[in-house]
């Protein structure tokens, strides 16, 4: 995917089915090189992704804040980047993404606390890498241990949106750039819940 530009703004890359995408990785000359910037520069770039990109009329915009976007010595999801998003973008709500490991619950608690402090509505919680389904017998194998999503959700008063399995076929499709055509029937339960979230 390629990003183009006008004199005053960037035009986001588009996937085969027209989903608009903007990433720092799309703007670097060498995608294998790290972007070694201090926090003020990173947050400035993030704001420009909102103000200086011609998004056009979009129904939804997802801002992915993966682990490691916080400043050093702060847990994922509680640093400068989330703070900038909360203060700069018209956020309708956030989705907390977790994994089955018990230790992750502490990080979720911090992310939830920050969202509440910033008065950001939490739409719910999703457990990623929840299990992998055996292709031979269909058994759900808990690669990272038993799920704790129900406990975490109950403790924090959150809605469980769904559990996303490890799916080798989906990973392969992502690597090949054909993820939009992959079988995502395993997400049907999540897609049924999302429209009901206010």
Radius of gyration: 18 Å
How helix-rich are the residues, as a percent range?
25-40%
Give the overall pLDDT as a whole number: 81
In the sheet with the most strands, the strands line up as: 5-6-9
Distance between the termini: 33 Å
Q: For the report, how would you describe the main beta sheet?
A: 3 strands, parallel
How many DSSP helices? 6
Quaternary structure type: single chain
Describe this structure in words.
- The protein is α/β, with parallel strands linked by helices.
- The chain has 6 helices and 9 strands.
- The protein has helices at 39-51, 80-88, 104-117, 149-156, 168-176, 188-193, and strands spanning 4-5, 10-11, 13-14, 20-21, 94-98, 122-127, 132-133, 140-141, 160-163.
- The strands form 4 sheets. Strands 5-6-9 form a 3-stranded parallel sheet. A two-stranded antiparallel ribbon has the order 1-2.
- A hairpin with a 5-residue loop joins β3 (13-14) and β4.
- α1 (39-51) packs parallel to α2.
- The radius of gyration is 18 Å and the shape is globular.
- It starts with a strand and ends in a 5-residue tail after the last helix.
Topology:
Blueprint: E1 4-5, E2 10-11, E3 13-14, E4 20-21, H1 39-51, H2 80-88, E5 94-98, H3 104-117, E6 122-127, E7 132-133, E8 140-141, H4 149-156, E9 160-163, H5 168-176, H6 188-193
Parallel strand pairs: 5-6, 6-9
Antiparallel strand pairs: 1-2, 3-4, 7-8
Essential attributes:
198 residues; three-stranded parallel β-sheet; two-stranded antiparallel ribbon; 9 strands
Concise synopsis of the structure shown:
This protein is of the alpha/beta class. Helix content is 30%, strand content 14%. The protein has six helices and nine strands, in the order ββββααβαβββαβαα.
């Amino acid at each position: 995917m390629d990003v183009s530009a006008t004199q005053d703004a960037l035009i986001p890359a588009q996937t085969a089915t027209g989903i608009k995408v903007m990433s720092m990785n799309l703007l670097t000359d060498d995608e294998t090189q790290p972007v070694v910037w201090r926090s003020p520069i990173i947050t400035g770039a993030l704001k420009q992704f909102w103000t200086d990109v011609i998004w056009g009329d979009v129904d939804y915009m997802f801002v992915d804040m993966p682990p490691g976007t916080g400043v050093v010595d702060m847990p994922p999801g509680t640093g400068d980047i989330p703070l900038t998003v909360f203060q700069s973008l018209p956020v309708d709500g956030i989705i907390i993404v977790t994994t089955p490991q018990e230790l992750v619950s502490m990080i979720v608690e911090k992310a939830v606390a920050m969202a509440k402090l910033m008065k950001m509505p939490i739409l719910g919680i999703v457990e990623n890498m929840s299990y992998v389904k055996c292709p031979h017998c269909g058994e759900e194998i808990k690669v990272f241990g038993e799920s704790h999503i129900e406990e975490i959700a109950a403790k924090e008063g959150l809605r469980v949106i769904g559990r996303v399995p490890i799916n080798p076929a989906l990973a392969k499709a992502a690597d090949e750039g054909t993820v939009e055509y992959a079988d995502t029937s395993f997400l049907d339960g999540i897609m049924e819940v999302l429209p009901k979230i206010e």
